[in-house]
Specification:
Length: 437
């Protein structure tokens, strides 16, 4: 079976490599010529564990190809996935220009039946626009060629995307015709050996499932952050509260960990887009507006704790940040709490030293020379008046606390992910703050 995937970002490249690994012939398409040249050389534009190995193996096996022109492969494939970006507009709605550009290109150049599958996260009703865009181009040509559209939203977690694709909780596919369902069944057949579920729905439901899933997870995070902040005020321990409610089978334990706010490319964007979609139809998503507000406030919590400790005077203080990516096992800093924290620290007159094992190049691109980038957690802690932990990388879990303390000017640790033992830090002579404890 032969397919094309348009867009070699996070979703497109992971999907292409994983489909190829299952024996499907995949051509990945992107208008960025430099990116395509690099991919042909084995240079991966994103950090994702095991992705470089997977791409290299399937390129060498001649199952995975890269091109800048969809026309090169369009009439040689049965399915075209659209995995291009849908960045938020200024009003929070999803920008569909790239999705519709792909649709128009298909309509202008297709010579035979093709199934066009939207993999990008898009608002409900997007597949109708895609279908209309393709048909409009066919009408301009006077061409009568059958095609179908479908929706196949992704549910990949950054840092575990390969595992998620190969052994997913479920695959959601929205279709309109039996022909489209049969093609998607054929495509996912190699994965059925893992006994996961393919859930076929109508297209609007598939589009909504993606947003609803991310919105629910974001809601759980903001809820626990709200509870954590109240725990501090009333003297409760949020870790005990989390365990107590997580063992309720109706609730479960996942996404109940408080911290300094969620970030990344999905939750912030999708919550905004779902709020905007509702507004378009005259409905107000009151819960999600609160989720968004809580999260934005939470991103400042480490700065607020630091400022309170020093009585509001941070000018001239040296602050070390451990972790910049929005979560471990990725270099993604989009909407990361670290960016808010750094902005506030610099505005307060602090010297900021940042260490992250993976995302330093991305941080340099975003921050330039406004902060310093030492090469270890210990060098970051040198002469620091506080260490702020923002990303729970494995190498941060068991530092040599006596060495850290010896480097610091003031032994203050503010733990934004609750990964440290309070008693251990106090025994080592630190002042320690965390979230909700």
């Amino acid at each position: 079976m032969k397919i094309a995937i348009v867009g070699t970002g996070y979703v497109g490249l992971v999907s292409g490599a994983c489909f190829a690994e299952m024996g499907i012939t995949v051509t990945c398409v992107d208008i960025d010529a430099q990116k395509i040249d690099n991919l042909k050389k084995g240079i991966i534009p994103i950090y994702e564990p095991e992705l470089d190995t997977l791409v290299k193996r399937n390129v060498e096996a001649e199952r995975l190809f890269f091109t800048t022109d969809l026309r090169d492969c369009l009439n040689d494939v049965e399915v075209v996935f659209s995995a291009v970006g849908t960045p938020p507009d200024e009003d929070g709605s999803a920008d569909l220009r790239y999705v519709l550009d792909v649709a128009r290109t298909i309509g202008q150049n297709m010579q035979k039946y093709v199934l066009v599958v939207t993999k990008s996260t898009v608002p409900v009703g997007t597949s109708v626009k895609v279908k209309q865009a393709i048909q409009a181009e066919l009408d301009k040509r006077g061409a009568k060629i059958d095609f179908d559209v479908a929706s196949n939203p992704e549910f990949l977690k950054e840092g575990a995307a390969i595992k998620d694709f190969m052994s997913p909780d479920r695959v959601v596919v929205g279709v309109e015709t039996q022909r489209a369902q049969e093609l998607m069944t054929k495509l996912y057949k190699p994965f059925l050996l893992n006994n996961f579920r393919v859930i076929f729905t109508d297209i609007p439901s598939a589009e909504m499932i993606k947003y609803a899933a991310n919105a629910m997870l974001a809601t759980r995070i903001s809820f626990m952050n709200d509870i954590a902040n109240l725990c501090e005020i009333v003297g409760a321990d949020v870790n005990m509260v989390r365990k107590g409610i997580g063992n309720d089978s109706r609730i479960g334990s996942k996404f109940l960990y408080p911290g300094c706010g969620y970030g990344g490319s999905c939750f912030p964007k999708d919550v905004k887009a779902l709020i905007k979609t509702a507004q378009t139809y005259g409905y107000e998503m009151q819960v999600l507006k609160a989720v968004e507000a809580v999260n934005e406030k939470q991103k400042s919590i480490l700065f607020d704790k630091l400022q309170k400790h020093y009585g509001g005077d941070l000018a001239g203080k040296t602050i070390a940040l451990w972790g910049l990516a929005f979560k471990p096992e990725t270099d993604d800093m989009r909407e990361a709490p670290s960016l808010v924290t750094i902005e506030k620290l610099l505005a307060a007159g602090c010297r900021v030293k940042c260490y992250d094992p993976i995302s330093i190049d991305e941080a340099r691109r975003r921050l330039g020379d406004t902060v310093e980038f030492p090469e270890s957690i210990y060098l970051a802690a040198k002469d620091a008046d506080a260490v702020l932990l923002l990303t729970e990388w494995k190498e941060f879990r068991v530092p040599n606390w006596q060495k850290v303390k010896a480097e610091m000017r003031q032994p203050l640790v503010i733990d934004g992910r609750n990964i440290y033992d309070k008693e251990e830090l106090i025994e080592n002579g630190f002042i320690y703050y965390s979230i909700g404890r």
